[in-house]
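Reading a protein record of the kind used here takes only a little practice. The integers have meaning only within a learned vocabulary of local backbone shapes. With that in mind, consider the following protein and its fold in token form:
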Amino acid sequence: MTSPLLSVEDLRVHFDTYEGVVKALDGVGFEILDGEMFGLVGETGCGKTITALSIIRLIPENGRIIEGKILFRTENLLDRTEEEMRRLRGGKISMIFQDPTVSLNPVFTVGQQITDVIAVHQHVERKEAAERAVEAFKLVALADPEKTLKLYPHELSGGMQQRVIIAMALSSNPDMLIADEPTSSVDVTIQAQLLKRLLEIKSSENLAILLITHNMGIVAETCDKVGVMYAGNVVEMGAMRGVLKNPLHPYTKGLLEAIPKPQTRAKRLPIVKGTIPDLINRPRGCAFHPRCPYTMEICRDEKPATVEIDQDKCVACHLVKR
């Protein structure tokens, strides 16, 4: 069996706040293979971005990884020094953040910024770094890359800014790319172009991608595997088609039923009632039980274990255990 590129095991992350300790992640676990696109999906506030930031150890200062392992090529990243992590970030693991305007420095041209990244991580002279920057811009299908190098971020459209960010992330030839809502700031036409390009690069470079999104449609179009997150837990995970065609967790079912379909245009869409629980005072038992239409007594008292249904699917739900 092929060893995973990335393996996250029982990851627990807490944040100290004035109100109390926020238990943001409560035992997250998943694996990503070389060349695989893994979608992490769920409502805002479920822990997707914190999971990504934990992998590259960039969680805010009031956060603590209190338990778990993050194995990259079998090495536990939690044992690495900060200097080692700095070399890894942007090198073997790159991340695309949600808002390109935050990621780009407005006082430098995009050419200066990507050239600096290449020079640092690939240890080349600036002239060669500039040549590689042009190639990176071509990789993401930026028109007239030589001219684009000379532009400042405010001179680019949102779609072009996002392409620049993707080019910067790919410029160091990473083994894995973490993409946090990479198309949320662009319109649907540009979104489709960017996703198509990411898939082409994934295939040609054998690139592993962790795609963070709340959009099940994007997952269906792009991902090989999917993990559904709720309140800091992965409640269902498996091959994309298996999860989307035969969801077993009530939360997964609720998310899929809420997707608009042509035949339901005139009807009111079903919703997942309620809201994500307070992560300072987490519900006992299953965190989803206050919103679940199938709640049983055991759901209120006992957190469900993750049950492996087959090689391609696992789910954490007492209904499945029964």
Q: What stands out?
A: Residues 6-92+216-321 form a domain with the Rossmann fold fold (CATH 3.40.50.300). The chain has a mean pLDDT of 89. The two ends are 30 Å apart (CA to CA). The longest strand covers residues 21-32.
